[in-house]
Amino acid sequence: MDSQTLKRFCSLLIGVVSLICIFTGNSIAQEKPTSVYRFSIREEINASAWRTTQQAYLKAETANVDAILIEMNTFGGLVNFADSIRSKILDSPIKTIVYINHNAASAGALISLASDKIYMAKGSSIGAASVVDGQGEVMPEKYQSYMRALMRATAEATNRDPKIAEAFVDPDIDVPELKEKGKLLSLTSGEALKAGIADGEVSSINEILEHEGLENAVLIDHQITWVDSVIGFLTNPAVQGFLIVLIMGGIYFEISSPGIGLPFIVALVSGLLYFTPLYIEGFAANWEILLFIVGVILLALEIFVIPGFGIAGIAGIAFIICSFAFSMVPNDAFDFSLTEPNLLFRSFMLVVISIVGAIVLSVIFGRSILKTRAFKRLVLQDEQNSSKGYVSSVVDFSLIDKDGVARTDLRPSGKVEIDGKWYDAVALGGYIAKGTMVKVEKHENYNLFVRQKFEVPS
After folding, report:
1. Is 0.70 topped by the overall pTM?
2. Could you give the CA distance from residue 371 to residue 381 in angstroms, rounded to a whole number?
3. Which residues contact 410 (CB under 8 A, 6 or more apart)?
């Protein structure tokens, strides 16, 4: 075979191999099934919902899914966490589909507008996103202005009508075909579809997948871990109040009966259970935890070191109350602009009531708790009284005024030998060198107290 023929053969072989690789690669790519990651937002929009969203998007991106489906049924929640979820959806490269199954009010409407597609179950509604306090009262204009800007910017980012989005917040926005002026806008599933806010009115998730061409997709459901459940439980206000009672009760008992140990352990464990989930959720910052520690130190100094009750004690109590309350609400140092005023007030009230309750319960039931059989099992109750024959040491008066010799250097403690026996000794008057003659002056607490013996010249 000549060189020219060999070259043609090699070129043909390379071409065949390339075609095989292309077809094989295509078949492998076609074998990869499409997938959709699904999670739900059914509760109030809060730290737990934000944590679920973060974990769901992380797992979805790791699994390289084709779309994320959020099934929503919420009446709203905290604006700052809704904004965080909104930003997460907008920044994600994965297509996000929201399925409104009944309600997407207030913060739920903001999150829905951030998605690529919105589908609504028949009879569902979206809107009414005005910022209100815990009693349902409309908040001041600065909060409404911020929410209007969020809604408008979100709608613009997802190619929806910003005027309609703003009308969810502002009753003065005029949308004649959808609402009367002076009323907040809320849309039914049919109205949202006509207004271009929703992309479809469906009766099931399967219909959504068909509309999106994902009918053959594998549906991956987000799994809530036990850690998430525990964090959700510990951040419940009722549980937080109970933990504060245990913390303050433990501190009270430890200060009242120093050295017992058990109250300190109860306070320490309760403190960890209180602050740890809040720290994980992004509420409690380092400075807030430090504020609590400083408060406890100031309180202890006031009780044990500084006479009376003054500035240190008052400052300690104030620091402890502030650390508890500030840890419950989102803030940037002392910036609470995104925190509802009533939420901060409710946090302070919960802390104050819990602390007062802890003190009252400790005073009323403190002695009873110390006398319970269960408590006595954990704490040493026996006393070794001298009236029962217990003594720290027996004084041997026969050793007083006896002479001996230092068998080690006394600096000031060491060993001395008297009548052939060695004893622990303490030098009176300073250092005594090894081999020096000594005289016993007294015997206390298992130690002989000796002084160097000087020879009197004859």
Report:
1. no
2. 10
3. 416, 425, 426, 427, 431, 432, 450
